[in-house]
């Protein structure tokens, strides 16, 4: 059975997206929060899970407790990064802070990976044969540096992973309809050897609508991931103000969502 689409769950005031366990891998918890179900006030309303955006610490703690309880994840088992919009990937073997980076990998069944997002795609990597997991923060800088390809290659070197065994999910993120970039971004991609016209479309005002999901999908397929095993993003953060936070739409002052990936206890 092949992956189809994300499922939007609702329970006790919470709403979150989940990868379809029955189609991806039994026992998988792959989720991304929305802005529903918390106690934060504007401009973080209501389920801000970001700890470094100016929201009160105790409020964020309450929001996180609500979210983790809803999705069935023990917060003491979560590994996380200080994200820097780069391409560093960390192999995690225990919970807690893992230093700077924008990608997490693990072979530990009892460990959950997490990333903070508010426009950039979170890319969920699941090796269905070995149970290996990866979670990658693929903003334009990371995408330009091919962070997803680097993560897959590292999973191969470290653990013998075969990309043909992977299922991949793109979390809710900004789509090209809401993501105009200027020539400096185009030039950065050109320096890294990208065919810019395949991943971006020029606008009437001279800027470009950049398709981050397409760019990363090309990297995945180039690495050997089957196209039919890729679950597309369920919603655009720029369009869905009613459901999702967007750093760009809000002018930088808003909450953060969490992407979380791990295995349910057997």
Structure, explained:
There is one protein chain. By secondary structure, the protein is an alpha+beta fold. It has a single domain, classed as CNF1/YfiH-like putative cysteine hydrolases (4-Layer Sandwich). The protein is 23% helix and 27% strand. The chain is built from 7 helices and 16 strands. It has a 7-stranded mixed beta sheet. Strands 5-7-10-9-11-15 form a 6-stranded mixed beta sheet, with helices on one face. A 3-stranded antiparallel beta sheet has the order 12-14-13. Helix 4 packs parallel to helix 6. The two termini are 21 Å apart.
Shape call = globular
Q: What's the overall average pLDDT, rounded?
A: 95
Count of strand segments: 16
Q: Please report the number of helical segments.
A: 7
- The assembly state of the depicted protein chains is single chain
Radius of gyration: 17 Å
Helix content: 10-25%
Separation, N- and C-terminal Cα atoms: 21 Å
CATH topology: CNF1/YfiH-like putative cysteine hydrolases
The CATH homologous superfamily: CNF1/YfiH-like putative cysteine hydrolases
SSE ordering:
EEHEHEEEEEEEHHEEHEEHEHE
Strand content: 25-35%
- The domain tally reads 1
| SSE class | alpha+beta
| Biggest beta sheet summary | 7 strands, mixed
Query: How are the strands of the largest sheet arranged?
Result: 1-2-3-16-8-4-6
What would CATH call the architecture? Answer: 4-Layer Sandwich
Task: Outline the low-pLDDT stretches.
Answer: none
């Amino acid at each position: 059975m092949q992956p189809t689409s994300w499922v939007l769950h609702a329970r006790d005031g919470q709403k979150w997206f989940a990868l379809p366990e029955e189609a991806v891998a039994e026992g998988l918890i792959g989720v991304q929060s929305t802005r529903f179900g918390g106690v934060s006030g504007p401009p973080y309303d209501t389920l801000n899970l970001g700890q470094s955006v100016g929201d009160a610490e105790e409020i964020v703690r309450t929001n996180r407790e609500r979210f983790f309880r809803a999705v069935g994840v023990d917060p003491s088992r979560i590994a996380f990064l200080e994200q820097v919009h780069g391409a560093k990937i960390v192999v995690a073997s225990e919970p807690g802070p893992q230093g700077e980076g924008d990608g997490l990998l693990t072979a530990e069944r009892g460990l959950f990976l997490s990333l903070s997002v508010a426009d950039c795609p979170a890319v969920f990597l699941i090796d269905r044969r070995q149970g290996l997991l990866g979670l990658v923060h693929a903003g334009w800088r990371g995408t330009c540096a091919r962070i997803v390809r680097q993560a897959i290659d590292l999973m191969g070197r470290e653990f013998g992973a075969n990309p043909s065994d992977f299922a991949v999910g793109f979390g809710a993120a900004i789509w090209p309809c809401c993501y105009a970039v200027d020539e400096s971004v185009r030039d950065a991609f050109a320096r890294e050897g990208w065919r810019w016209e395949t991943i971006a479309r020029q606008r009437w005002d001279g800027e470009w609508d950049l398709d981050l999901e397409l760019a990363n999908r090309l990297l995945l397929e180039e690495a050997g991931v089957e196209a039919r095993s890729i679950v597309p993003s369920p919603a655009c953060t720029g369009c869905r103000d009613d459901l999702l936070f967007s750093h760009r739409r809000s002018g930088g002052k808003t909450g953060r969502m969490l992407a979380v990936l791990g295995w349910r206890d057997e």
